Amino acid sequence: MTANEEGDHVNIRHEDGSAGDANYGAIGEGYTAYRQPDPHIEGFIRRALGCARLVLNVGAGAGSYEPVDREVTAVEPSASMRAQRPPRLPAAIDAVAQSLPFADDTFDASMATFSVHQWPDLSAGLSEMRRVTRGVVLILSCDPARLGRSWLADYAPEMIEVEARRYPAIQAIVDGLGGHAEVVPVEIPLHCTDGFSEAYYGRPERLLEPGARRANSAWSFVEPGVQTRFAERLRRDLEDGAWDRKYGSLRTQPTFDGSLRLIVAAPEGESSTFHQAVAAR
């Protein structure tokens, strides 16, 4: 989905089937080397799913955060990403969020992780998830209003600006799901194994690796010169200590409260049990 000047999105279907703005046929190679589910983040998702057995994963990609102890149906339009799903996970169905090929109330719960910013029609996708789900719908996304908290806003403002345009406002997700929704802050652990950009808040050297940047689709929308300037400045500042003088305390900070948020929405007339599940731990 490519953002226009008004912030709307255009429905694009890339050669490999990618239905959003990012062409995963071009940037998806090696994705799983950098994007592995993080146990801390995974815990939030498992608690939000509760006792649901039949789970739909929309925009499933290579299968990060899919619970292996549930019956999961995965939907993913990108052939490149479907091919990277490990053998332990079910094959993903080639379909898109705004047109899910399932009957009403098919699933106990549904989930979408790092996916909604790719959808060409957010409202339709959320409505479809609600339609096919009789229980909780959970969305793991980033709050665009909080992206500026990262040191990347200093070193790569162009990339942060792209991300802020692509990610929908958290309230737009809440409104699209209807019913009762909780917005849960998800702090990012220092050694996060899921390499989205903020995951390297205390490990800046990792973002000198082209593969680490390629595994974050926002970098594919900035001019090539932006990446070059970013890498040159970061390398120089790491070598002469400038980065550490300004941000060095992040290297030992256990967690970072950045933009990551989990939206947990129960059906209309019901309440989410997420916080009860947390309290019961």
Automatic annotation (TrEMBL):
This is Class I SAM-dependent methyltransferase. Residues 56-134 form the Methyltransferase type domain. Residues 1-21 are annotated as: Disordered. Keywords: Methyltransferase, Transferase. Residues 1-17 have a biased composition (Basic and acidic residues). GO terms for molecular function: methyltransferase activity. Signal peptide: none annotated. It comes from the Bacteria. The keyword Transmembrane helix does not apply. The lineage of its organism: Bacteria, Pseudomonadati, Pseudomonadota, Betaproteobacteria, Burkholderiales. It comes from Pandoraea apista.
